[in-house]
Specification:
heterotrimer, A alpha+beta (about 350), B mainly alpha (about 300), C mainly alpha (about 270), B: about 300 residues, mainly alpha, MetI-like fold, 14 helices, about 0% strand, disordered C terminus, C: mainly alpha, MetI-like_sf (chain C)
Chain lengths: ~350, ~300, ~270
């Protein structure tokens, strides 16, 4: 398959969409690089699926521009966009067998019978469904259906592939397996891919970049590592991974919590209330290691310890009652010094793990 | 990534092209509906509008309310209305009385048994009204089956007057209307989860109390839908009263036929039609307002 | 719901309910069924069971030019009504289902208006209109009036078919390169065709059994079977009608079974 060389970038500008008088997307911009695997991640109602439907041409935006490789497609009907699409429920045609499902896009393009057969064969190989061409769709397992839907979406070598939560109907084990398979398929074919999911783990596993969407806007667009390590808003920090949120105040170029100066790696913010975001696995029991130069020390009282097999979570209260969680692996040295409920402890948060986000409320 | 001011939306990028595109699609879809709409416009809306116009003029072509005033002035019209409503109330009541237990039984039967029994409800629905009315005439008339049997058994010496009178109309119409009540009622009863009743009984309610306090209230919307449909259909019903009333039971629709056909009084006939339509729509509107419901849902069941 | 898990109440205690239900069911079905043996009666007297058997009433039906002509008119009207109402209703249902149609609610009400409006009013109205257009006593007029009454049933049946159909399939077909009509034809149509066939059967039976409007607008050469039956019933109970009724009941059973069969395969 030769998609890789021709995969175009997608430039989205000023997409606005209202349903009735309710704005779903309000002036959204997004650039998807050539051959990139980009995920739209967000809770239901964040507008991610609407954006995907607009890209595919099933929902008409009120305004905006979609430029695919230098060509404006916003007013083009779906069948002229040359976009492969995989739906959440696969939408396989039940009245056709596997072969005819996959051959459907080739038939629309009046491909010769010989070439159709050859290409279907090839794509069946690619998705590891050799020998299933004559099966009826209802004789396939969930994972097989998923592969057929994928094969059908790529057999005509589309420039773009869109996927709307394609794995959400699979059970956990199969889902994780398919994530890796989809990812390696993308690496081999290199088509520009826009993927929609509400599962942050899935997004982090698969994506080159993730656009976190909330209330019809993109809150942050970054590589998964950056998104996790440097969330820019409280929403992003809360949606991706677990976080402690500690209310802090900024004045005179410094950040203060409970009368103490807080060391953070974030650039000094404007005056006012902010949130300090700390990932539970970045909080340490102070006895673990010596005091770093730029570390914050917090006095806390242990409330509860929850054992989770490979790790444990320690819930503690800071002096003013603020709750904070700490996660660590169950290594023998850690377990040996595990505090008990009611015990006062010192918690350490390094400056580079203390992220400052604006108070949006 | 950035939120833009609200006014951006109304004249943003390609907004005009997209609006034109939307209009094109909507027009195309309207085009798909247009044969049906044109047909309804010509065959239903136009003539009824015309009749409404006619009803506003008296015999001399003067604009007047005479055609409507007649309804409250002439005893024969008042009698027609009274008869119509009497029949409609009686038939609706009888349908509820015998239709509710039937729908309840159907909803409680295992699925296979229920679908077999349902055929007995749907088949009459699909059988011509004329055939069913004829059947009742055969059974109920002077020399009909019932009278023949009773005389043969020596129970009576003179045939009972069962057809060609008020009783005949009521029996015939109840038979025809019953499926219209049972089908929506059954459909709504099917959606009542048996767990509710189990829960009620588990909480100590005896079966009767569980029925009256849990099942019955939940079945009311379906019952109301059926009642409204039956009542409305009764008001405008023609075939059965015309054939089984023996000329003695004059209902609204028959009156319309006589006024326009026999006396060629289009103004009066039209006025009757207009009032009938108004009452029908009024009842439907009232029902929709009370229940916020799907008044036409029964037709989907057929 | 699982059928085996019923209420904690025995069938025995519900015997009265089953008795009432059975009575009501027989009230619904017995009158029509009683017609069937009577149509094979050998005498003019209406007796059940008939004292002698014969096919004379069927002979009377099939040998009467009037009855035969009326049957042919009704069949013609029903076939033409089906031919027109099915595509019109299906197209409208597609548009109503698309979600992109403006005023869809209003259009739905207009298209299904003939179910709500008293039939007698439609009868008088069409008669009045046709008198000016010269359409009374014509097949064209009959088919037009019947089509208006059949379209709502097709619309509702096909709409209910759409409800159990996943519109994403048509979407995916379009994204795979099929135009809108092509996607409908190749993907949607094959999957809702049973609803469309059911709708067509409804259209047929609606037209064939229609009485009231036909009373007003059919006559002479184009007298429908129902109109002739109505007049015959007004005058005298003739066992010929039992034979005709039996034929109609058989027709109903055949159409209903066909609709059920198609409905199940959907």
């Amino acid at each position: 398959m030769s998609t890789a060389r021709s995969a175009p970038p997608i430039n989205i500008r000023g997409i606005a969409k209202r349903f009735g008088s309710v704005p779903v997307l309000s002036g959204l911009d997004l650039d998807v690089a050539s051959g990139e695997f980009l995920t739209l991640l967000g809770p239901s109602g964040s507008g991610k699926t609407t954006l995907l439907m607009i890209l595919a041409g099933f929902v008409r935006a009120n305004a905006g521009s979609i430029d695919i490789g230098g060509e404006e497609v916003i007013t083009k009907p779906p069948h002229k966009r040359n976009i492969g699409m995989v739906f959440q429920n696969y939408a396989l045609f039940p009245h056709m067998n596997v072969f005819h499902n996959i051959a459907f896009p080739l038939k629309q393009r009046r491909t010769s019978a010989a070439e159709t057969a050859e290409r279907v064969e090839k794509v069946l190989d690619l998705v590891q469904l050799q020998g299933l061409a004559d099966r009826r769709v209802d004789q396939l397992s969930g994972g097989q259906r998923q592969r057929v839907a994928l094969a059908r979406a790529i057999v005509f070598e589309p420039r773009i592939v869109l996927m709307d939560e394609p794995l959400s109907a699979l059970d956990k084990g199969l889902r994780e397996h398919m994530q890796i398979e989809l990812r390696s398929l993308h690496r081999r074919l290199g088509m520009t891919t826009v993927y929609v999911t509400h599962d942050q783990r899935e997004a982090i596993t698969m994506s080159d970049r993730i656009a976190v969407m909330n209330k019809g806007r993109i809150e942050q667009l970054d590589r998964p590592e950056t998104l996790y390590a440097r969330p820019r808003t409280r929403f992003v920090a809360g949606f991706i991974g677990e976080s402690n949120f500690i209310p802090v105040e900024s004045r005179d170029g410094s950040v203060w919590y409970a009368g103490k100066k807080v060391h953070t790696a974030s650039p000094s913010p404007s005056s006012g209330r902010h949130w300090l975001v700390v990932r539970p696995e970045r909080v340490r029991l102070a006895a673990d290691a010596g005091l770093g130069a730029n570390a914050n020390m917090l006095h806390a009282t242990v409330r509860d310890i929850v054992y989770q097999g490979d790790s444990f979570i320690c819930y503690a209260n800071l002096a003013d009652g603020q709750q904070i969680a700490l996660r660590d692996y169950c290594r023998s040295d850690v377990l040996a010094r595990l505090p008990v409920a009611g015990q006062p402890v010192q918690l350490r948060v390094d400056a580079e793990d203390a992220i400052l986000v604006a108070d949006e409320t | 990534m950035s939120a833009r001011p609200a006014e951006f939306v109304s004249h943003g990028l390609n907004a005009d092209a997209l609006r034109a595109d939307a209009r094109r699609e909507s027009l195309g879809l309207l085009g798909l509906c247009s044969p049906g709409l044109v047909l309804v416009g010509i065959i239903i809306v136009l003539p009824i509008g015309w009749l409404f116009w006619l009803s506003l003029f008296d015999e001399n072509g003067q604009l007047s309310g005479a055609n409507y005033a007649r309804f409250v002035e002439q005893a024969s019209y008042i009698r027609t209305f009274i008869t119509t409503f009497e029949v409609a109330f009686l038939v609706t009541g009888l349908c509820v009385l015998i239709g509710y237990p039937l729908a309840y039984m159907l909803s409680q039967l295992p699925r296979r048994a229920a679908s077999v029994c349902l055929i007995f409800v749907v088949l009459p629905f699909w059988t011509s009204v004329l055939v069913r009315t004829y059947a009742w005439l055969v059974i109920l008339q002077r020399k009909g089956l019932v009278n023949t049997w009773l005389i043969d058994l020596g129970l009576i010496s003179q045939p009972l007057p069962l057809a060609h009178n008020f009783a005949g109309v009521i029996i015939g119409m109840t038979h025809i209307m019953l499926p219209f009540l049972v089908l929506p009622l059954y459909a709504s009863m099917k959606t009542i989860d048996a767990d509710y009743l189990c829960a009620a009984m588990n909480l100590g309610a005896p079966p009767t109390a569980a029925f009256w306090q849990v099942f019955f209230p939940l079945s009311l919307p379906g019952l109301a839908a059926g009642v409204v449909i039956v009542f409305i259909l009764c008001l405008g019903f023609f075939v059965t009263p015309a054939l089984m009333g023996g000329g003695k039971v004059v209902m609204w629709a028959m009156r319309m036929e006589q006024t326009t056909g026999l006396y060629s009084n289009w103004g009066a006939g039209s006025a009757l039609g207009v009032v009938l339509l108004a009452v029908t729509l009024g009842l439907l509107g009232l029902f929709r307002w009370l229940l916020g419901a799907r008044a036409t849902s029964v037709w989907g069941a057929r | 719901m699982n059928d085996d898990i019923g209420l904690p109440i025995s069938h025995w205690r519900r015997l009265w309910l089953y008795c009432v239900g059975a009575l009501v069911l027989s009230f619904l079905i017995v009158p029509s069924l009683i017609i069937v043996p009577m149509s094979f009666s050998g005498s003019t007297l209406l007796r059940f069971p008939p004292e002698s058997w014969s096919l004379r009433w069927y002979e009377a039906y099939f040998q009467s030019v009037e009855w035969r002509d009326a049957t042919i008119v009704s069949l013609k009207a029903a076939v033409l009504t089906t031919v027109f109402a099915t595509p019109i209703g299906t197209a409208a249902a597609y548009a109503l289902n698309s979600g992109a149609l403006r005023l869809a609610g209003f259009i739905n009400v207009v298209l299904t208006a003939s179910l709500i409006i008293p039939v007698i009013l439609i009868g008088i109205g069409t008669f009045f209109l046709y008198a000016r257009l010269g359409l009374n006593n014509t097949l064209t007029g009959l088919v037009l009036a019947h089509t208006v009454q059949a379209v709502p049933l097709v619309v509702l049946t096909v709409l209910s078919g759409f409800r159990s159909y996943d519109m994403n399939q048509e979407r995916v077909a379009r994204s795979l390169g099929a135009g809108r009509f092509s996607a409908f034809w190749q993907v949607t149509m094959p999957q809702i065709r049973f609803s469309i066939v059911s709708g067509a059967l409804f259209a047929f039976i609606t037209s064939f059994d229609e009485v009231v409007v036909s009373l007003f607008i059919s006559g002479g050469e184009t007298t429908t079977l129902t109109r002739r039956m109505f007049s015959a019933l007004r005058d005298q109970i003739d066992p010929t009608i039992a034979a005709i009724s039996t034929c109609l009941i058989v027709l109903s059973i055949v159409l209903l079974s066909a609709a059920q069969l198609f409905g199940r395969r959907r």
